[in-house]
Description:
It is a single chain. The chain has one domain: 3-Layer(aba) Sandwich (Rossmann fold). The chain is built from 15 helices and 15 strands. The protein has helices at 2-18, 68-79, 94-97, 110-119, 133-138, 140-160, 194-208, 219-229, 256-266, 285-297, 317-325, 339-346, 355-361, 369-380, 383-389, and strands at 24-26, 58-61, 84-88, 102-104, 124-127, 164-166, 169-170, 213-215, 233-239, 241-243, 269-272, 280-284, 307-309, 313-315, 332-335. The strands form four sheets. Strands 2, 3, 4, 5, 6, 7, 9 and 13 form an eight-stranded parallel sheet that branches. It has a three-stranded mixed sheet with strand order 10-12-14. It has a two-stranded antiparallel ribbon with strand order 1-8. α2 packs across α10, α4 (110-119) runs parallel beside α6 and α9 runs parallel beside α11 (317-325). The N and C termini lie far apart (75 Å). Residues 1-29, 31-50, 209-230 and 386-390 have low confidence and may be disordered. It binds 1,4-dihydronicotinamide adenine dinucleotide and 2-amino-3-ketobutyric acid. Belongs to the NAD(P)-dependent epimerase/dehydratase family.
Amino acid sequence: MPIxxxxxxxxxxLLQSSGCGCGISIVPVRCIGISPRxxxxxxxxxxxxxxxxxxxxxxxxxxxxxxxxxxxKLLRKRFGKNNVILSDIRKxxxxxxxxxxxxxxxxxxxxxxxxxxxxxRITWLFHYSALLSAVGEANVPLARAVNITGLHNVLxxxxxxxxxxxxxxxxxxxxxxxxxxxxxxLCIQRPRTIYGVSKVHAELMGEVRxxxxxxxxxxxxxxxxxxxxxxxxxxxLRYPGIISADSQPGGGTTDYAVQIFHDAIKTGKFECNLxxxxxxxxxxxxxxxxxxxxxxxxxxxxxxxxxxxxxAMSFTPEELAxxxxxxxxxxxxxxxxxxxxxxxxxxxxxxxxDSNARRDWGWKHDYxxxxxxxxxxSFLGSDSRIAQAN
Length: 390
Ligand SMILES: NC(=O)C1=CN([C@@H]2O[C@H](COP(=O)(O)OP(=O)(O)OC[C@H]3O[C@@H](n4cnc5c(N)ncnc54)[C@H](O)[C@@H]3O)[C@@H](O)[C@H]2O)C=CC1
Ligand SMILES: CC(=O)[C@H](N)C(=O)O
């Protein structure tokens, strides 16, 4: 096993150079172990650039939610329709089913997920399955299973098959004791929802699982070494609340910011379940998906971290309503606060500091609040209504 010997040699060299004299233990990994056995010792670990015939083979889990179909569309444009497989446990609508490969996959079924990855020669995995903040609080055992056990399955399979893995995190990974205005990448994270707890767990597991050798005293340095040299290529963005026109949100605290558009057009009345002055970071879906592709394509050496905040705008329901009223002046907004969602929102960041993403891999958003609102209305086809209003 020359590669294993090389690993051992590299480890002992590192240990000597670090001078920490720390103990070693093996991180248990399900099945056949991870990348060191599968990677040539002279392999290049710089970011891969793909030729026409050498695109990544992509699997998206939980792909029928608010974000997955849009992500598939973007990735198919870039890598070819048949190189991007959407999966979920729900039945796809006709237009989704006929737009490219779709497969049933329950992330709690480890063997089935592994079979899909193997049979389809998957190289990149976008792990979107989750229960969001509000539905998670309503069903904690299910949220724990999907968001934590499901993630473990995905991590094991990704490590075993050398996948590049994207797992989204969220503003919900912070809590009331985090600095909220602005919230930096690295700060105290003590969320008070099962959703937030599971996302902090995902952030940490993704980084920790990148190494197969665990050093008690110099963990950070060694894990980074193994990450680049042999390990799982884990990438994670903390998304703000995402606003989209052609897909419905799946039960989160920020859902009001999508619903207001539909109600403005349909009834001209909107009942908001958060207080008018609740400030939260938000983003238009195109920016979110653009960032996701960009961080996956970023050269590994550009990434000084593996989990980044990304940000675009931040507003309150009152501010959003005012902007919406520029398009639908007759919109009436009332407030009927949902105590669970309000408590969650009050513990989340008000503004997100994404300076590391901007510096490391050139993240830049395109949509601020006015562009977001006019884009939503042009997408939802409210032109006639706006004309009437004017
Ligand atoms: N939409 C947003 O505002 C934000 C989303 N995110 C993250 O982005 C990811 C995607 O979010 P959305 O599309 O909005 O979520 P969503 O709730 O709309 O969709 C999640 C999907 O996961 C699927 N799912 C549930 N259990 C499953 C299982 N056992 N196996 C396979 N699939 C299962 C559901 O059927 C659903 O289609 C999630 O991880 C979420 O935490 C993070 C921050 C903001
Ligand atoms: C911000 C999120 O993660 C999501 N939209 C939610 O509100 O739960």
